[in-house]
Design a protein that fits this description.
The protein is of the alpha/beta class and about 280 residues long. Helices cover about 40% and strands about 25% of the residues. It has eleven helices and eleven strands. β1, α1 and β2 form a beta-alpha-beta unit. α3 packs across α5 and α9 runs parallel beside α11. The longest helix has 22 residues.
């Protein structure tokens, strides 16, 4: 369940629009929202005062624009490096979801350009909803999950069904990347999906909750196929498991696969043409 949401608001990008779309979902409407703006350290007290005032205006404008229930929203202005502030506040309030804007920088470019979203993606163990600055945020009605036998996929499925359960006209897109399909994405009939060992359990869950579904089977490189099918199926939100493969003694260190852009989640973060919710799961 998503009961606490942290919106990291820089005053630019699409994060506020994303939150609006998310709060329209019946399952999310009662969630409490914390809107955070971080003010980086400045070279002079005068500059600090100016940035602090600007931050206060950003928060006030966001609260006014979002039109949320005053009983369920709070604002937070913090001084410090935005990357660290977001991670610390996420732990402090025990948030269920972080929403952040993203420039969609590729691989090491995001590290070299000091990307806040990439840093938080690396080091936070909280689910993150990333929305790139250059995409159009639409009303959430079609959510996609890539299915396999992993615990990660099952958790993503459960989250998608939780979000879709009371949406009129909502639909779940179930993707199975199967090497035997010859590289062509094909929509699978309900009868065939119920026989597929990967799709059948997901279909059964969707039926039980009364959620409409569509099944697609394809093959190829998983990251590329996920992005392509999301585009072809006009998906409004993609939920993807992002397992943390680091040993417990290295949780404060970046995951090299993500750092170098070689993981599925990092590729999708950069190339998907829709918002991406990265659900944290154990390795």
């Amino acid at each position: 369940m998503i009961e606490k949401i942290l919106l990291a608001d820089s005053g630019t990008g699409q994060s506020e629009t994303m939150l609006k779309a998310l709060m329209e979902l019946p399952s999310i409407q009662r969630a409490s929202v914390t809107i955070l703006h971080a003010v980086p350290p400045q070279v002079s007290s005068e500059n600090m005062t100016t940035k602090w005032e600007e931050g206060g205006k950003i928060l006030a404008t966001a609260i006014q624009s979002l039109k949320l229930d005053p009983n369920h929203v709070s604002s937070m202005l913090r001084q410090g490096d935005p990357k660290d502030v977001v991670c610390h506040v996420a732990e402090e309030i025990n948030t269920d979801l972080i929403i952040m804007g993203s420039r969609g920088l590729k691989r090491l470019e995001s590290i070299l350009e000091n990307s806040v979203s990439q840093y938080v993606f690396q080091l936070s163990n909280r689910p993150m909803l990333l929305v790139k600055d250059d995409i159009y945020v639409k009303k959430i009605q079609r959510i996609m999950v890539a299915m396999d036998k992993s615990e990660s996929a099952q958790k993503c499925l459960d989250l998608a069904l939780y979000m879709l359960r009371d949406i009129k006209g909502g639909q779940l897109v179930l993707l199975h990347i199967n090497p035997s399909t010859g590289g062509k994405a094909t929509e699978v009939s309900a009868a065939n999906a119920e026989k597929d060992p990967i799709l059948a359990p997901a279909v059964a869950k969707a039926k039980k909750m009364g959620v409409a579904y569509r099944c697609v089977v394809t093959s190829g490189k998983p990251a590329e196929q996920i992005c392509q099918v999301a585009e072809d199926q006009h998906v409004n939100l993609l939920i993807l498991g992002s397992p943390d493969r680091r040993p417990s003694v290295a949780k404060s260190l970046p995951d090299l696969d993500r750092l170098l852009g070689t993981s599925v989640s990092d590729y999708v973060r950069v190339y998907a043409n829709c918002p991406v919710l990265l659900a944290r799961t154990p390795a």
